[in-house]
Specification:
Blueprint lengths: L2 H17 L2 E6 L5 H16 L3 E5 L17 E2 L8 E5 L8 E7 L2 E7 L10 E5 L6 E5 L9 H4 L2 H6 L2 E5 L10 E4 L6 H16 L6 H14 L10 H12 L4 H9 L4 H12 L2 E3 L4 E6 L1 H7 L9 H4 L9 E7 L4 E8 L6 H6 L4 E2 L3 E7 L3 H20 L23 H4 L10 H6 L7 H7 L13 H4 L17 H5 L66 H8 L8
Parallel strand pairs: 1-2, 1-8, 2-3, 8-9, 9-10, 12-13
Antiparallel strand pairs: 4-7, 5-6, 11-12, 13-14, 14-16, 15-16
Bound molecules: manganese (II) ion.
Length: 566
């Protein structure tokens, strides 16, 4: 966003905020430090201007954030005006008795005047007044992230101006005013100049310690306490300003990073116990079932941080995945990549998800978690096989019963005899070497909803030879389709590019990984402290896989020679 455009959009927002009285602020799912900080800081500033402000969020606010000021004002529903008003002009009649009968679902209002008579012309119909003048969405990449708040109020959204303030790469500019800056570390960073301008324009002092603390919370959580790749110089500048305004940085750190509930620690224990590794393809993953949640008493959102803080630190891990079996037959997956040449969002797209270059996620409904695990691992292995030039040969798609932590911490490849001689006829591997078709094409052929490929089938055999579309034409589209994802992902944590022995140097903080080089793509515009973020995709349906990717094909040539260090 160029500086001039940015200033003008900030000014438009300030004008709208001053002009309108009843303001509805919407924070998106999942409720994280950035969306809570953004919505409540705006709430406090606008209250000082005597506005009627309503804040809603589709998710309950996690306990973690209850130390923040005013979280109690966040509601979970919108009271849109659906009132239908029937008005009867009774000036022509006198002394009327009024009776009201409900019968077969119909309401009869019976007006019995002593004098005079009513006609059709005396009756009129109206809708009640709207309860809001304007909607502001914060930290919301797509309206789907608002869940029922949007789905249940489509009409309201079409009638009211929407101001969209966000930093997601995937933002689809759904607002009438779109203040979307993907270079911002957090949405709260974008609100600093807005509050400055609002203060100037209204000539009312707005800044206080609470507002500053809320805004700093967004930056701290989305940058993983300044550890993630989206920690730009601007993020530090913004934080310095906020601390100057009295932001209570220690309080934020203490509550968000230094306090863990016992249930969270127990759940982390489960995740680590069940962690599996595939040394051959540098994959680390863990699967949480509903039983793990019930056994530990942990809530589904208590996995926050684990993927980034622990799993991603496994030596040699390049693709990290946490699968969570949630209520209602939903399985959510969080994907992290530690190697800049592996695009997490394009891996997630295979399962109808999306996200950022180093952190992404997906949601799948009505597929058992163990099947999801098989499919996901199969895809990762195929992808890595192609990228690393390591044959899949005879390597079974390993799985494990998700409930039983059967072989914790044992690499599946260690437990499998290392197969060097290919059992696949050479003619077949010549015809369809691993990844002649992109992972996506394969997924299209074997949608996750249908019966997945049996666990023991060596992947290359599963590649159908006949309908092989050439991947080449879609290759250039590997950047834009992410923007076109119909459903948007919440920000997710970028793994700090530390302690993982990757050969390719981590990209400059604000640059995209090499394969996304057509546009100055920011790395991970956001990252909340909670890895939860990655489960935040509101994908209702399964893989309508965008026609994209083929990154599996293009990458090996672009990637620096790979060297795996133990
Ligand atoms: Mn954010």
């Amino acid at each position: 966003m160029d500086p001039q455009a940015k200033q003008s959009v900030q000014q438009q927002i300030v004008d709208q905020l001053l002009k309108n009285q009843k303001i509805l602020i919407m924070a998106s799912s999942p409720a994280d430090g950035d969306c809570i900080g953004s919505s409540l800081s705006l709430y406090l500033a606008l209250k000082k201007l005597n506005k009627e402000v309503t804040v809603v969020c589709p998710d309950p606010i996690p306990d973690l954030y209850h130390f923040l000021p005013n979280t109690h004002v966040i509601g979970d529903r919108v009271v849109a005006s659906k009132d239908f008003i029937i008005t009867i002009d009774t000036r022509k009649i006198q002394n009327a008795n009024i009776k009201n009968l409900t019968e077969d679902g119909k309401i009869n209002i019976i007006i019995m005047p002593e004098n005079g008579r009513l006609s059709d012309a005396d009756v009129s119909f109206n809708y009640g007044p709207e309860r809001y003048d304007i909607i502001i969405t914060v930290d919301t990449g797509g309206l789907e992230q608002l869940g029922q708040l949007h789905a249940g109020n489509i009409e309201m959204f079409s009638q009211m101006p929407v101001i969209n303030i966000d930093h997601h790469f995937s933002n689809d500019h759904f607002g009438r005013i779109n203040y979307v800056d993907v270079m911002a570390s957090a949405t709260t960073e974008l609100l600093i100049p807005v509050i400055d301008l609002l203060e100037q324009a209204s000539k009312t002092p707005l800044w206080d310690e609470d507002i500053a603390t809320l805004l700093l919370t967004g930056i701290i959580t989305d940058t993983g306490s300044f550890q993630n790749a989206n920690t730009t110089p601007r993020a530090f500048d913004a934080s310095a300003q906020l601390i100057a305004h009295g932001a209570r940085q220690q309080e934020i750190i203490q509550h968000i990073f230094k306090t863990k509930q016992l249930t969270t620690l127990k759940l982390w224990g489960r995740i680590l116990t069940k962690m599996q590794t595939d040394d051959r393809f540098h994959i680390v993953w863990s699967v949480l079932t509903r039983k793990d949640f019930s056994d530990t008493g942990a809530a589904e959102n208590e996995t926050g941080g684990i993927v980034d803080e622990l799993l991603s630190n496994a030596p040699g891990a390049e693709i990290i995945c946490l699968l969570k079996e949630k209520k209602d037959g939903l399985v959510s997956g969080s994907i992290r990549t530690t190697n800049p040449s592996i695009d997490a969002s394009s891996l997630a797209e295979n399962f109808g998800g999306g996200g950022h270059a180093r952190a992404a996620g997906f949601k799948i409904t009505d597929v058992p978690v163990e099947k999801v695990e098989q499919q996901v691992l199969k895809l990762f292995r195929e992808y890595q096989s192609k990228r690393l030039g390591v044959p899949l040969d005879g390597e079974p798609v390993l799985s494990h019963p998700p409930v039983a932590p059967s072989k914790p911490l044992v690499s599946p490849s260690q437990s499998t005899p290392s197969v060097t001689s290919s059992k696949i006829p050479s003619s077949s591997s010549q015809k369809s070497p691993p990844f002649t078709s992109s992972p996506k094409q394969k997924m299209e052929n074997t949608p996750v909803t249908s019966a997945p490929v049996p666990a023991s089938v060596p992947a290359p055999v599963a590649v159908p030879v006949a309908p092989q579309p050439t991947p080449a034409p879609v290759a250039p589209a590997d950047v834009s389709p992410k923007l076109d994802l119909p459903l948007q992902a919440k920000p997710v944590v970028a793994p700090a590019p530390t302690s993982v022995p990757v050969v390719a140097p981590p990209p400059a903080p604000v640059m995209a990984p090499p394969q996304a080089s057509q546009a100055p793509t920011p790395v991970v515009p956001a990252a909340s402290a909670s890895a939860e973020a990655s489960s935040s995709f509101n994908f209702q349906t399964l893989p309508q896989v965008a026609d994209t990717t083929a990154q599996g094909e293009t990458q090996p040539t672009e990637v620096a020679p790979y060297r795996f260090e133990k």
